[in-house]
Fold each of these.
Amino acid sequence: EVQLVESGGGLVQPGGSLRLSCAASGFTFSSYWMDWVRQAPGKGLVWVSRINSDGSSTSYADSVKGRFTISRDNANNTLYLQMNSLRAEDTAVYYCARENSMTTVNPTDYWGQGTLVTVSS
Amino acid sequence: DIQMTQSPSSLSASVGDKVTITCRASQSITFYLNWYQQKPGKAPKLLIYAASSLQSGVPSRFSGSGSGTDFTLTISSLQPEDFATYYCQQSYITPRTFGQGTKVEIK
């Protein structure tokens, strides 16, 4: 069974940093591209970042470029999101998600339960 | 960036109704369009990928159509468990943008 379990969320002051982790199991982690998607309270889904299967290629939304860094540890089946210079508008539930890179269109086929990041003084 | 626009933003329907949600892309995305269902407090769930392919385990009352810039998600006979928010997403290029969502409520 595919499982994605996020951790590392919490309350942080504006300008602070946080690192999210996502532990993957039930599939060959090193074969799949992975994403982070966030959802502010009461709002819609927003794609944040993606990383290819070996970690050599990354992409970011303009709103987080230069502040967030996505990475992965394929030996330990873990995805990360390092978040620096956090702002109030980064407050959201952050989802780790798997892209089904075995299909042409790479849909996001599995999602974690999400971890809440609150940026407030 | 490709903008995804869903309509309507919300709708009220009864059990057994046929429901149609549309999604329009700001430029052609061929068939790189996916649909998700999200219930309150839960993670999204993939329903349809590549515009019209049903994800494994998803009931056949869900269907998708379209190509290019205009897409449709149809629920042929609305069930109680289908009351949720639905999102489209383009996976043609990054950023992999989502529509703003369509909330399906009980009439």
Amino acid sequence: DADVTQTPRNRITKTGKRIMLECSQTKGHDRMYWYRQDPGLGLRLIYYSFDVKDINKGEISDGYSVSRQAQAKFSLSLESAIPNQTALYFCATSAGGVWWETQYFGPGTRLLVL
Amino acid sequence: GIQVEQSPPDLILQEGANSTLRCNFSDSVNNLQWFHQNPWGQLINLFYIPSGTKQNGRLSATTVATERYSLLYISSSQTTDSGVYFCAVPQGGSEKLVFGKGTKLTVNP
């Protein structure tokens, strides 16, 4: 079984709809991250969390919110989706203690906002 | 903030050929990761290599932190090596992992 899972894997939604992307991990890591990837670009950090009581904004947090329901679960919400949020979204985890340790990525969620 | 540049942006090889991908970064780093994104979008860790050299099968990586670059070597390339290779480094003093724009590798049979 995959260590980092994301649901759904693909989603089509309409402008103005609320949508939630979910991430679960079995690696036992404290730190979790949400990134988005746009065509031809690398990944950009949206939000990150060091533990269930710690949430931090990344580079491009506007229009997004997150919830860390448990050590193993980190959800990303688009409160009112817009077409330029169409992208590939990745969740990632890393072990606590040394924040620059290796990050492990989920399989990604392809989101299309019409 | 730190800048990450990868070269070449595109690379086309015949199966069996060797290749070298480069990642330059603009500031000192204490971490560097190489990733492979396959044609289906899956992102796979290849190496965590803040300095020195590591090898994993046909792939190896070298980071020269003092000169602010890292190299990824692919030997005897296979069609399954196709995809985009990213390097990423942390923004100094933050949790932000900064990615380069990637090298798109196509290996033809």
Amino acid sequence: DGGITQSPKYLFRKEGQNVTLSCEQNLNHDAMYWYRQDPGQGLRLIYYSQIVNDFQKGDIAEGYSVSREKKESFPLTVTSAQKNPTAFYLCASSTTRATGELFFGEGSRLTVL
Amino acid sequence: KNEVEQSPQNLTAQEGEFITINCSYSVGISALHWLQQHPGGGIVSLFMLSSGKKKHGRLIATINIQEKHSSLHITASHPRDSAVYICAVGSEKLVFGKGTKLTVNP
């Protein structure tokens, strides 16, 4: 079945450590996104990519980094520079950025101890 | 004022009731999305629409471009409909509402 796979589902890290969240899709979608969700707030865009080897910052990119070496993969690294990294992270993809239906992964919950 | 406002924030209904969730927005859009987030956190796309009305099973979504307003209706609600419903609007960039938490009691 086609879809988006995020891993790990739950992750704990100590302050000062970098952590990488995986996102893989087999939908042959060009556009991929990383969102952050905090309690009581709408989803906020961290990074997006519309094509392999190209990505753009979203609204809250500071302290995060991404890569897009393959069409199906868009990993997110939460660096030690991110001041408040505890959150729920969602990866999504669509055929095109402007008009495509969104498909989401199951999310990764990161807790910094 | 938020660019996307959803109402109500929380909604409790009895099984079988007709449900309406509203979304008002102030940005220009090429499409409006209705999403469903389950308690585990996963999100499913319900509708993407830019005009008129769409229906899928017991769910109906409408949009009025002139009034910048959309509604999501659920007919014959069921406990399995309990979830957070999120409205998202935009063109190149999507802006998300904070969601409406729906609880349907048996």
